[in-house]
Amino acid sequence: MPSDRILIVEDERSLAEVVEGFIVRLGYQVAGIAASGEAALRIAAETHPALALMDLELQGPMNGFQVAELLYHKHDIPSIILTGSTSAVTVDLVRNSESFGYLLKPFRPEELKASIELALIRHGRETHLRRSEQSFAAAIKSAEDGVVLANQEGLVTFLNPAAERITGWFSAVALGKRLEDIFQIQMGAAASDGIFCAAEPGTFVREALLVTGSGRGVPVEFSASQVRDEARGNIGSVLVFRDVTTRKLYEAGLKQSQAELRSLAGHLESAREAERTRIAREIHDEFGQLLTGFKIDLSWLEKKLAAPSQPPPAALLDKVRTMMGLLGDMVQCVRRISAELRPGVLDDLGLSAAVEWQVKDFQKRTGVRAHIWSALSDRPVSRTVATALFRVLQESLTNVARHAEAKNVHVRLLEADGQLVLQISDDGRGITERELGKAGAFGLMGMRERIFPLRGRCEIHGQPGQGTTVHVTVPLEPSEEKDL
Q1: Where would a tag sit more exposed on the chain, N or C end, judged by fewer CB atoms within 10 A?
Q2: What is the pLDDT of residue 283?
Q3: What integer pLDDT is reported at residue 453 of this predicted model?
Q4: More confident residue, 444 or 28
Q5: Cα separation of 337 and 446, whole Å?
Q6: Per residue in 28-51, pLDDT tens?
Q7: The domain containing residue 202 runs over which residues?
Q8: Does residue 324 form part of some domain?
Q9: Residue after which a domain boundary falls, among 319, 342, 365
Q10: Number of domains the chain is built from
Q11: Residues 56 and 76 reside in one and the same domain
């Protein structure tokens, strides 16, 4: 553009001055005039011109081609060759040089202007492209992910340092080899062959075990895609991958930690169930017997006081009868506490009877209409499974009473497709997704954790205004008994 500085390299002073006049008339500045290659390089280093007009024959040991090449490589200055020769040899030299055009002497100012503008535009575009390529190459080389490029024949054309480090192949050795030879992976029954050539346009991500150049196995996550050009179509493929060894170690540690926590939780729950059973038995057997004996004695005392031979004061008889009422309430309270700790019906009559008893007791205590439908076969249900399902039922009914605002609750217990199914549905306000994911919802969390060790599923769904459904499935024959 006008105001750019242009260097004139011409050994004929008179011609150089003519060119200088053209340049000034076109609105450009003259960075200097040099008659030799040495002078041109010195002026270029001092003034940093945007372009050089280069005569082929110069004073000194260097010709115009040599000077133009040095200007371009040392100072990024493009050159336009000025020549009076039209020979095929000269034209071929110009074509094969790194010049940005040439003008045949003599030339008109309009021709000079067009050549200058075209050269500056081309240089600007090439500079932008070169810098973009340099930035891209620097980014690829500094990336932590491995990047491998292959041509249409599947031969490797590029590896970045991360790819060299992960695969164990150096670029000097890998270039020109088949991509499948450099990136050898194991994916169960599949191997490297055909994975990349079968890739459709776009990308896909998989995990595999990479066999390195030294034979070591490295877990990787990789993405492969075809490289497509609008004009030429598929021109090769690009493979991006990362070493996920550390992530796998963390995942394994996390899974082990989760398994240990679940095992501990199951052990604690099993211990708590055992303790509940023991306390319930002691309350029922020992405390219950003491209360029963006390009730018998009070009953005897009441009969004696009510005898007509020696009528006692009315106040004393009323007091004894009040004590009999309180004692009856105490007996019922002991029975209720004992049943809540561990209902004897669960151990004595099984899961189906215990569920029916729990549902009826829930209706009597809350006033919510409860409906039960049970269709279990005579196949015995293990104590572990029965306890887990019964506790899920208890927690679900507790949530209905506390939060659902329901008028009806339906409980279904059945066998289907080799699964034991328990479903509790209500017609209340419906649990929300926010409540399902709420931190501190330990009741819901405990329901899922009770079922997980049994290889079962506990799903909870709610619809606003239509109620909540808890759906539990457990295999009828779990692989092994787990502590709950």
Answers
A1: N
A2: 67
A3: 83
A4: 28
A5: 22
A6: 999 899 999 999 999 999 999 999
A7: 143-243
A8: yes
A9: 342
A10: 4
A11: yes
Judged against a pLDDT cut of 50, whether residue 81 lies above it is answered with yes
Give this prediction's pTM.
Answer: 0.47
pLDDT of 2 reads: 56
Instruction: Supply the CATH number for residue 154's domain.
Output: 3.30.450.20
Specify the pLDDT at position 484.
Answer: 46
pLDDT tens digits, 358-412? 899 899 989 999 999 988 877 788 888 888 898 899 889 989 998 888 999 999 9
In a domain, 482, yes or no: no
Question: Is residue 211 domain-shared with residue 316, that is, in the same domain?
Answer: no
35 and 126 both lie in a single domain: yes
Please indicate, yes or no, if residue 252 is contained in any of the structural domains: no
Q: Are residues 290 and 393 in the same domain?
A: no
Domain termination site, one of 139, 155, 182: 139
